[in-house]
Amino acid sequence: MAVPHSYEIMTQSAQISIPTQRAASPVPDPLALIDLVGAKTFFIDLSDTLSGTFGFECFHIFLYQTDAAPVSLANRPARCSYQRGLDNFLNFTYVINPVFRAFQGNAASGVYLISDLVADDFKRVIDTADIDIFVEDSETIGYRTPGWPKNMAECIVLVRLPNGTALDFSFLVPRGHKQSATCAEQLRQLFPVLARVVCRQFEIDPASFVAAPQRPGQEDRFQDFGSDVLTDREMEVVQLILVGHTSGSISLQLGVSISTVKSHRRNIYGKLEISSQAELFSLFLLHLKNA
After folding, report:
1. Rounded to whole angstroms, how far apart are CA atoms 94 and 109?
2. In a domain, 20, yes or no
3. Residue 272 belongs to a domain with what CATH number?
4. Which DSSP symbol is given to 224?
5. pLDDT (0 to 100) of residue 119
6. Which of these three, 209, 234, 260, is where a domain ends?
7. How confident is the model at residue 288 (pLDDT cuts 50, 70, 90)?
8. Which of 21, 52, 55, 230 gets the highest tally of CB atoms within 10 A of its CB?
């Protein structure tokens, strides 16, 4: 079915004109998405509609908030086979996840591959089962939460909402599979429609974006890690390390020499009584768990 260059959403006596591009690949019928607006089961129905088109193995809709942990609004398959990994992400590891960091960094709404959001060479992460993160060089972001599917590429749709929160639509497909590029292209075609439909649903029924219980967020713990012993500049360096920046990238970010960055790292390790970056991640995630 050819997608028209424009069409209108008619819901709750409101009319929304949506420009679209002509699709080269099949995407969901825009009217199928429009019809969902106002439904109490909006996210469940939306997941079902998207599931009928895209060739992903797993799919999640997360609500990101600045002052609370992420909320899972829908999953496909509905019965998640990696619940432990999902729980670990929602409670702890999200705080250094590239998509959440992009949300905190005011990334624009749009379609991304997870690799678009990874800082430099994010490969040295803790390898301690107690922390619930494994080093995985085959993973795009350099680590994997135990129980999370291995070797999966992620296509991301980020939609910012008027209240400062955002939705993360994460589509997981096998790494290296041509379906990854196909899924991303289809999502780019669908994005103007999906974003407008979601925002219209928020206007009509903001309560449908809330799931209880709301867990306290970890952002404050991320920001205050090491504050009892580190200087402000050293804390800045630590935060850049935690989100995957190398010494070279940190030097560019802060406008200082690499030797200055290395000096900061030595001082940080000394003050925290650690000797490696792996220990830094271990200490940081224990800091989160002990909140």
Report:
1. 19
2. no
3. 1.10.10.10
4. H
5. 57
6. 209
7. confident
8. 230
Closest Cα to residue 277, out of 121, 146, 99?
Answer: 121
Provide the residue type at 137 as one letter: D
Residue 38 CA to residue 58 CA, distance in Å, equals: 25
Residues 107, 40 within the same domain: yes
The C-alpha atoms of residue 186 and residue 184 are separated, in whole angstroms, by 6
Q: Judge contact between 44 and 74, C-beta under 8 A.
A: yes
Could you read off the pLDDT of 244-263 as tens digits, one per residue? 788 888 999 899 999 999 99
pLDDT at 212: 57
Residue 166 lies in a domain: yes
- Residue 17 domain-assigned (yes or no): no
Are the beta carbons of 83 and 160 closer than 8 angstroms? Answer: no
Q: What is the DSSP-derived secondary structure letter of residue 216?
A: B
- Residue 138's nearest CA partner among 151, 128, 129, 149 is 151
Judgement on whether residues 151 and 102 belong to the same structural domain of the protein: yes
**Residue of 67, 193, 93, 101 lying closest to 146 (CA atoms):** 93
Instruction: Say how far apart CA 204 and CA 138 lie, in whole Å.
Output: 43
Looking at every residue in the chain, the average pLDDT score rounds to 78
Q: What is the 3-state secondary structure (H, E, C) of 46-68?
A: HHHHHHCCCCCCEEEEEEECCCE
| Same domain for 116 and 172 | yes
DSSP alpha helix (H) spans, the chain: 30-34, 42-51, 83-91, 98-104, 178-204, 219-224, 232-242, 247-254, 258-272, 277-289
202 shares its domain with 243: no
Global pTM value: 0.71
227: how many CB neighbours lie within 10 A of its CB? 12
pLDDT reported for residue 55: 66
Domains contained in the chain, number: 2
In a domain, 262, yes or no: yes
